[in-house]
Each structure stands twice: as structure tokens, then as C-alpha cells.
Amino acid sequence: MHLKEIGFRDFPQGQTEEHPFRIPVIRSLKSLVLDQPVTILVGENGCGKSTLLETIAVAAGSVAVGGNSIERDESLAQAKLLSKYLRLSWIKRTHRGFFMRSEDFFNFARRVREEQSELKNLADEAGQKFKGYGRLLAVGAALGQSYALEAKYGKDLDANSHGESFLKLFQGRLVPDGFYILDEPEAPLSPVRQMAFIAMIQDCVKEGSQFLIATHSPILMGYPGAKILNIDGKSISSVQYEDLEHVKITKAFLNNPASFLKHL
Predict the structure, then answer these.
(1) Hey, which end of the chain has fewer CB within 10 Å, N or C?
(2) What predicted TM-score, i.e. pTM, was given to this entire model?
(3) What is the total count of domains within the chain?
(4) Is the pLDDT assigned to residue 102 strictly greater than 90?
């Protein structure tokens, strides 16, 4: 465990009517204890769970997986405002891990592809420009970096399905003792790959890592032993898996799809 508690200090008078300070759960959140290695955030779109995760990522100084650093990411402007008022209480501070939204996967895959292409172009240029031992060193350095990327993420992320590429990317970035903030990571994953994803998280937890995950997936919500926090209006509360609306509706639909759809 790394992060044990989060909460917002009082906002300046008059600022609570401005976005994002007026989001109900943001206004009401004074203290939230994280007492499990995996915490799942559940709630409808617009409830504030993504804003909360982004704010925690900014305040924690997390590394963003996407194309932009957190400091330069304009989409995190609101999170940066909120982060000034967020309190983080650590058991053991770590700078390992990362922050990732579902769209960040595609940005990162593009960045890896561009970097591999640039390294191969550098190797070609060095082969034409230099001779002898200098040529060997220059070409070897460029190709060595390219092969290192291939070893970590695969030869071509685009050659695989989105689900396969996501799992390769995720596995390549995992390190022990990290703090990982993930916003809807299920987007590119089939049900089977979501279960493989859970297995990766379990292995990482055994090595001292902590995860904070926002999801709509009943499969990811079912992570064994996870603390599930449901955002409903301005309140955020711990709930059991079986009591989640996502789970109840999914079960009802799977038990009798035709009957369920008839009543819509």
C-alpha cells in the first residue's frame, strides 16, 4: 500500500459555484480512506470519477502514459486547479507507476511506432554517413534502442488487435512497488482479455503495487478483495459487488435477454 487517504481542503468562498468545484462529489469529499491494494471507482458518466482520478494523478505527480506529460496536457487543466486543494496521505510514497486513460493507449502506441521509425531511419542515415568502427557504433546504438522497444512492447503494436496491444503495453510498463491510476482501462479489452488484465494486476499487487481504477466493467469490478466505491450524486460510499447496479442489470440481461429487452 502507498496512498492511504485522500480529501479536499475547503475551497475559496465563491469558487464552489464554478466548474469543476461545483461537481457534487468533489464539493462533499472531505476524507476517503484507501485500505485495499485495489480500489474500484464506479458511477455514471458525469458523476466526477474521472475528474477525481485526474486530480489525484496531478497531485501525486504521476507519469502519464499518453503522448503529453501531465504538465503540458491541456485536458487536465481542471484537475490542476483542483489538485491545489487535494490532500494526499501516504503510507509509503512512490514515484513508480503511471496514470492512464483509455484514449492514452492509442496516443502511446502511436508514439512508440514513431520512435521505432525514427530510430530505424537514424540507423540507415548512420550507415550511409559513417564508415568503419564509427559506422558500427552509430548503427548499433540506434538499432539497439529500436530492439529494446520491440522487446518491451512487441515488434508492431498496430499488427495486433487493440486488446493484444493494450496488454503488451500495460505489461511492458508494469514495475513492482508502483501506484497505478487507470480510467476505464476496459475500453479496448474483450471479456477474456479483461480477465487476463485482472491476472496482471494480481501479479503486480503481489509485488507491492497499488491500483486505483475507474470502470464500467462488471468483470473488473469483480476483482477479488477490491474496495468498491460507488459515486451516487454527491455521496461516495463503499458497496458490495452484488449490490452494484451494473452487476444487477448485467445479470438480469444475461439470464433472459429477450424478456429484458421487451420491457425497454
Answers:
(1) C
(2) 0.79
(3) 2
(4) no
